[in-house]
Amino acid sequence: MEVKDVKHKKKKKLGSYPYVSVVFSITLALFVIGLFGLLILHANSLTRMIRENVSMQVFLNRTISENDKIQIQKTLASKAYVAVVEDQPQISFISKEEAAKEFIEDTGEDFTQFLGENPLRDAYVININTEYQTTDELAKVKLDIERMSGVFEVTYVENLIRSINENLTKVSLVLLGFAVLLVIIVAVLINNTIRLALFSQRFLIRSMQLVGATSGFIQRPFLRRSFFHGIIGGILASVLLLFVLQYVNQQIKDIEKLQEPANILILMGALLVAGGFIGFMSTYRAIRKYLKMSLDELY
Hints:
By secondary structure, the chain is α+β, with helices and mostly antiparallel strands. The protein folds into two domains: 19-49 and 167-298, no CATH class; 55-155, Alpha-Beta Plaits (2-Layer Sandwich), CATH 3.30.70. 66% of the residues lie in helices and 8% in strands. The chain has ten helices and six strands, in the order H-E-H-E-E-E-H-H-E-H-E-H-H-H-H-H. It has a four-stranded antiparallel beta sheet with strand order 4-5-1-6. The chain has a two-stranded antiparallel sheet with strand order 2-3. The longest helix is centred in the middle third of the chain and has 41 residues, at 158-198. The radius of gyration is 32 Å and the shape is elongated.
């Protein structure tokens, strides 16, 4: 009796498709978005640090009394344009002796010896609230402080602040434009990858239609799997980002000061949501297309 080898062909299961390539594409796309997101987070932190250090120097009259100095400090602390960190107004006092000492250390020249006196003045340095860092608002702040009794002069680097504002606006617009473009490219990439992956299932979808399966019944396993694969892609992309962050922190000194763990966690959570959403919507569109195709169009 002849023994014939019977080859059992694995049946295709509804909703199954070459998911490895899909997960890889989603992971890669979300990883690129994540890298760009990290760049934006670091840029925002750097912008905030720059703005928090925009300051004005309030020089006092030479004959001012200690009580008047205290009164000026209290008045400045009550102003809305003075930055506040942890309920503390960002005001520091620099005496003329401290200023002279710092100048001598920086230049190596003791100007008090040939002048016979210290020409510098006591001063308050105040950090300006970000809401008041436009050119017009800073001019108003300067005028308001100079009207205070005991204040000799108020100075700040006007050209530098104007340059900072202009450059930060340009950088923000460029980053926003790239972010929108990148999201569109990634969505198209994932959409095309899923459509190609589902191409092998088009005849199975038609067969299910012919035996009376409803559209919802056919779509359900595909949508469930694609959402799950998108979440996996988001998790893998987040893990890759953690490795990148660890490497960057080892290579670049003090960059951790620009990193806020809460924002990084939000970014990674957004990658998971984006992966699931894009995978779900791309699959939904592809399935709807195959459901509406005629038999001739399937070949």
